[in-house]
Amino acid sequence: MGEKLVVVGQGYVGLPLAMRAVEAGFDVVGIDVDEWRVKRLNAGESFVEDISDEQVAAALRCGRYLAGTDYAAAEGFDVCVITVPTPLSEGAPDLCHIASAGRSIAPLVRPGATVVLESTTYPGTTEEYLLPILEEGSGLRAPEDFLLGYSPERIDPGNAVWRLENTPKVVSGIDAASLKRIQGFYQRVVDRVVPVSSLQVAELCKLLENTFRHVNIALVNELAIFAEQLGIDVWEAIDAASTKPFGFMRFTPGPGVGGHCLPIDPSYLSWKVKRSLGHNFRFVELANDINDHMPDRVVHRLMLALNQRGKALNGSRVVVLGLAYKKNAGDCRESPAIDVVKSLHKLGARVRAADPHVTDCRLPAGIEIVEATRRELAEADAVLVLTDHDEFDFELVQEVSPYVFDSRNRCRGPNVEVL
């Protein structure tokens, strides 16, 4: 028998880790509260684009993977990695899923076991919040009896170049022994491990990475608004600036930010700064304001364009291309496209949405899911590009659509306007 690994959460973060660990020789138990998700996994079906059905089936066939909702299957684990969601609730961190996972796994913690938190959260969570839960439920103490650490997840759904195994993995431990053990664990599943000196450094690292992206996306989003008003092609300016080999990193405008990181993680950092230091994190608050209002900006631009063509948004047939928060992925968590669709529907547009990746997305009643066929595009009053999946035929889009508003700069032509 190999070492037993428990991965709590079998979503976009936990499932790739579980599959990679099986390949590395671990006996893996994947715990998830979603019975539908567990049923699919045990049938050899993946719901994550980065993991194929065959990978799941192979893990099941070799006998080293089992998905379940019952923590009893985790008994006797050597390593437990917690990869549960950490949403916001009324602007404050909601750690209920971490608490639930901690309380459930705590009675199964035995001397010498290792627990690692991967969920994105504010600095101090692992030691100040998760540790007491584990100690109370186990009757043990860390680091004397069991090992504890934090390693920020860096999963980028749909990225075919940077996957779990070749993306450097930051790791930390509550003490030197914990760090050594956790570093050794991840060295078996990824190519490069980056140890840091404390749990708080690792927790801040994740928030820094996503706050950096969030602020820079807000910069180009606001720049796009002003450039359009000044009559300047912001996309051409970005292309030109991107030729500079130093001191510049390319970010592009869009209809907003989405996914499990950008709309949430910077607010965790802002909340922590406000709570601990009494200061406002002004960059984060400004970025939130800009990015949160980009869906409204898209709807406003579309409304103006239709008015200029003698049409009202109310009653117009609008075909939306893309519901996911990013291209070539099916994740629509916090997707700005969903906000745009809901606003259009509320304003009376006849919305028809196409997305070849999204299979489970809550949309208002009356919005029809369609394919982006020639006829569908040609019969639209407006086609709105929100997510630029490679499966969309953008040459066809700009050829047959009467009018296209493209928030991703994939179409060009006399009938096309870009964000």
Distance between the termini: 56 Å
How many strands? 16
Share of helix, binned: 25-40%
Task: Tell me the number of helical segments per DSSP (H or I, 4 or more residues long).
Answer: 14
The gist of it:
Helices cover 39% and strands 14% of the residues. With 419 residues, the chain is an alpha/beta fold.
Question: Which SSEs are present, and which pair or pack?
Answer:
Layout: E1 4-8, H1 14-23, E2 27-31, H2 35-42, H3 53-61, E3 65-68, E4 79-82, E5 88-89, E6 92-93, H4 96-105, E7 114-117, H5 125-138, E8 147-150, E9 169-173, H6 176-187, E10 193-195, H7 199-230, H8 234-241, H9 265-277, H10 282-292, H11 294-308, E11 317-321, H12 336-346, E12 350-354, E13 368-369, H13 374-378, E14 382-385, H14 394-400, E15 404-406, E16 416-418
Parallel strand pairs: 1-2, 1-4, 2-3, 4-7, 7-8, 9-10, 11-12, 11-14, 12-13, 14-15, 15-16
Antiparallel strand pairs: 5-6, 8-9
Helix pairs in contact: 4-5, 7-9, 7-10, 9-10, 11-12
